[in-house]
């Protein structure tokens, strides 16, 4: 809490805070992360990196943005960078955390990874929660143990090995979730997937400044109508809806996790007119900012 009684701003956590020795890739049991990790995660915060949690035993109450999930044993969940979340662990919880920056799944391979990232990390629900059966648990355990070994021994080519193991981990998870690229002619699928991933990354970087599809299309060197077609093809919604959803999501994060006024939030999100922001928010959510804040804090829905 700040001196004025307001909730503190949402903290941004960088990977070195979890991995001072190696900032390119982290794989660790939850218990070995220590008590500071658990205490830290009680407060709303964002990661600058991709994170995968695997809860093997115990239970976790996890709030991502404004939705609370009760995560029980043998459950994977995936967090994209900049999502606001907080976690409350049961006393006997254990499992794994895998964390890596965007550079580790570099954009040079965007065409190959677009389907995976769109399905697991970048989706309309802004989260993925996957429960593993006994056979799947065994398969993922082998992969994670190999990651831990590669990271500990650091033999020649270990980064390539980690990259391949992570890719395999994500492919298996994507299969279980049932996420797949839309059925499109093969010669266009990879290119469109790469463009869509660039579009989603551009939204993350520019949604404070850019609000129109034409502005994003211009930076991607394509026509707005084509960007909308690719977006609908790969995600089921238009490019404009993705932009609006991202702005609304950020507004909801501030409303739920801080005590900033609607006017303060409007300026943070790049709106020059706070009244327009309030009308924009109500148009796409059906609630005023204050109505949303009151309803969300009264009790977020729980998903099993």
UniProtKB/TrEMBL annotation:
<feature type="domain" description="HTH araC/xylS-type">
    <location>
        <begin position="197"/>
        <end position="295"/>
    </location>
</feature>
<dbReference type="InterPro" id="IPR020449">
    <property type="entry name" value="Tscrpt_reg_AraC-type_HTH"/>
</dbReference>
<dbReference type="InterPro" id="IPR018060">
    <property type="entry name" value="HTH_AraC"/>
</dbReference>
<dbReference type="InterPro" id="IPR014710">
    <property type="entry name" value="RmlC-like_jellyroll"/>
</dbReference>
<keyword id="KW-0238">DNA-binding</keyword>
<dbReference type="Pfam" id="PF02311">
    <property type="entry name" value="AraC_binding"/>
</dbReference>
<dbReference type="GO" id="GO:0043565">
    <property type="term" value="F:sequence-specific DNA binding"/>
</dbReference>
<dbReference type="InterPro" id="IPR009057">
    <property type="entry name" value="Homeodomain-like_sf"/>
</dbReference>
<protein>
    <submittedName>
        <fullName>AraC-like DNA-binding protein</fullName>
    </submittedName>
</protein>
<dbReference type="GO" id="GO:0003700">
    <property type="term" value="F:DNA-binding transcription factor activity"/>
</dbReference>
<dbReference type="Pfam" id="PF12833">
    <property type="entry name" value="HTH_18"/>
</dbReference>
<keyword id="KW-0804">Transcription</keyword>
<keyword id="KW-0805">Transcription regulation</keyword>
<dbReference type="InterPro" id="IPR037923">
    <property type="entry name" value="HTH-like"/>
</dbReference>
<dbReference type="InterPro" id="IPR003313">
    <property type="entry name" value="AraC-bd"/>
</dbReference>
